Amino acid sequence: MANLTTILGKQVDSEDAKPFAAHHQFLIIGGGSAGITVAAQLHKKLKHPDIAIMEPSETHYYQPMWTFSGAGVIGKENSQKPMEQVIPDKTAWIRDYATAFEPERNIVITGSGAQYSYDYLIVAPGIQVDWDAIPGLAEGLGSNQICSIYSYRNLNYVKECIDNTKSGTALFTQPGTKFKCGGAPQKIMYLASDTWKKAGILNDIDVRFTTAGTVIFGVTEIAEALQPVLKRYGITTHFTHNLKEIKADEKIAVYDILKDGKPVDEKEISFDMIHVTPPMSAPEFIKKSPIADAEGWVDVDKYSLQHNRYPNIFSLGDAGSTPNAKTGAAVRKQSKVVTGNLVSLIQKGEIDPSLRYDGYGSCPLITGFNKLILAEFDYDNNMTPSFPINQAKERWSMYHMKKDLLPKMYWYGMLRGRA
């Protein structure tokens, strides 16, 4: 009978994991949705895999719920669980963070100075939220009607801002960088607008969507479906407007006006409320590492998710270089490609050419209370519907799937390797 060791409150079979060893068969960087899902799937696909997850956080968040929390629909506490509850059994948890990679030696160096070697490395640390990239944002967030659903700490303040806004100008911004959950800047705007509509004060509020982009949504069918929604709430769109500064005390937002992606002018807009989607980028320790591409993302083949130079490294989720929408639904599809290719490498010495990620992303666009347009699409922005219905139509059923069903599928399906 194998020896059992207690590691951080978990019973771990010493034949399955070597929690205090410097070497692991699979070393996963990140305990978010991507890292946990891959670990769970590997346990189902392989017998006695030695898996370690490197993650410093004590809490795991289901971030897609934060839009609902910001609108006061679901308490933010429902979006979190202790990390130790979601890390799969028989998985070593390294409570540390990666600072450097030495892929030629198969080594990861941590913040504590420890070194871990691996047979296979899965890099899934998520995306870096650059609050400091906009002067005035970090210090102004949570006051002066400046809010964001991208900050768990300030989620309740989003609802407070919505309720405190009775008239004037409400700005909702979208950055020119890549960012997670491409529809979120609009979702909270629509829920806020519906709140004001139900309160009978929407006509007194000038709702503006300011985006560095040139379209309301990248998929043509969805962009067209959103036009009646924008009209219903009287929302004006301001394209090629990239937020560059917030003058918090004066309640002024400063924008670069872009042409061909470059600033050609500047504009100031006074606000009574502003919801900010902050700029985001690859994590700093990825950017400066040898596994990054020229833009700082983990350099992987967009179909196999295998590193372009180091065949025993894979990446999925927000930190990868794949040009897809950064969504949890993408992780669900990517994870099967990564785990399938890892198993194929172990058993056959090569990846499985039939396992290809097609860029699938899903954006459940909440367009109001009890209304949702489900956008599903691939690398080429082709619609890839999962249901035999017109998904470009607002539906009550899709809203409740997003609100009530998907969280359960996440906690009890995806994170356990079942979905």
Automatic annotation (TrEMBL):
<dbReference type="InterPro" id="IPR036188">
    <property type="entry name" value="FAD/NAD-bd_sf"/>
</dbReference>
<keyword id="KW-0274">FAD</keyword>
<feature type="domain" description="FAD/NAD(P)-binding">
    <location>
        <begin position="25"/>
        <end position="144"/>
    </location>
</feature>
<keyword id="KW-0809">Transit peptide</keyword>
<keyword id="KW-0560">Oxidoreductase</keyword>
<keyword id="KW-0285">Flavoprotein</keyword>
<protein>
    <submittedName>
        <fullName>Pyridine nucleotide-disulfide oxidoreductase</fullName>
    </submittedName>
</protein>
<dbReference type="GO" id="GO:0048038">
    <property type="term" value="F:quinone binding"/>
</dbReference>
<dbReference type="InterPro" id="IPR023753">
    <property type="entry name" value="FAD/NAD-binding_dom"/>
</dbReference>
<dbReference type="GO" id="GO:0070221">
    <property type="term" value="P:sulfide oxidation, using sulfide:quinone oxidoreductase"/>
</dbReference>
<dbReference type="Pfam" id="PF07992">
    <property type="entry name" value="Pyr_redox_2"/>
</dbReference>
<dbReference type="InterPro" id="IPR015904">
    <property type="entry name" value="Sulphide_quinone_reductase"/>
</dbReference>
<dbReference type="GO" id="GO:0071949">
    <property type="term" value="F:FAD binding"/>
</dbReference>
<keyword id="KW-0874">Quinone</keyword>
<dbReference type="GO" id="GO:0070224">
    <property type="term" value="F:sulfide:quinone oxidoreductase activity"/>
</dbReference>
